[in-house]
Design brief:
229 residues, alpha/beta, TIM Barrel, six-stranded parallel sheet
Length: 229
């Protein structure tokens, strides 16, 4: 991603990186600000042959990583380097799910040991209010692509305030989405760092645990609550 500004297809109200500076699902005109794929691969190679110890290499950053034009190529090359130098290391992806409109990105998920995709809402109205997608990004399309993938994890940030995704009807709709997608697991969180929208409030650990317990019962999916103790 660019090192001097946030480039993302979402402008989430809770993002600890702040408001999105460049809000788009098409990075074509910003390609000059992105690192060259050869340079990224060289940095990865250097890390793999170094003495530094690490368990994961994770695609994430100040924006949406799957917007990178060469993401599929990079994922394949990372897998090759990992298999050659450190087969015990895992590859992870933290994504907001919007890049799944690309067939190449969807296929690249096969190279990821821990593919984690965002789903913060059960309805389009709440999706638009919480995630504030760039033009052309549709809630139903994201759901369709998530359903097409196997072995993925869903990550959800739950908040109350304005906007809110934890009302009873919204939680029910969210559980229904999970029943259809049937991910390998679901990780739910609330906000623990400063966020750009001051009207948001965090859920307490016992509330998150209750939602996770209910979610497991209603969806058959392994749902876990994460929080600072």
């Amino acid at each position: 991603m660019p090192h001097c500004y946030k480039l993302c297809s979402f402008n989430c109200v809770y993002c600890h990186y702040g408001w999105t500076k460049v809000h788009t699902g098409d990075v074509g005109r910003y390609a000059k600000d992105l690192p060259d794929v050869k340079d990224v691969i060289e940095v990865l190679r250097h890390a793999f042959v170094s003495e530094e110890q690490f368990d994961y290499v994770t695609f994430s950053g100040n924006g949406e990583p799957t917007l990178y034009p060469h993401f599929a190529e990079l994922a394949a090359e990372l897998t090759r380097l990992r298999d050659e130098f450190r087969p015990e290391v895992k590859i992870a992806l933290l994504s907001n799910s919007t890049g799944l409109g690309s067939e190449a990105v969807r296929k690249s998920v096969n190279h990821i040991d821990l593919p984690v995709f965002k789903l913060d809402a059960g309805t389009e109205k709440t999706f638009n209010a919480i995630n504030r997608p760039a033009p052309g990004i549709g809630f139903d399309e994201i759901g369709t692509h998530l359903r097409s993938l196997c072995g993925i994890f869903i990550q959800t940030v739950l908040v109350r305030g304005s906007p809110c995704n934890t009302g009873e009807e919204e939680i029910e709709a969210y559980f229904e989405k999970l029943r259809v997608i049937q991910p390998a697991g679901v990780h739910i969180y609330s906000i623990d760092r400063p966020v750009p929208n001051a009207q948001l409030a965090r859920l307490q650990p016992d509330e998150l645990q209750g939602i996770a317990r209910r979610g497991r019962e209603m969806t058959g999916v392994n749902m876990r609550a994460f929080y600072l103790s």
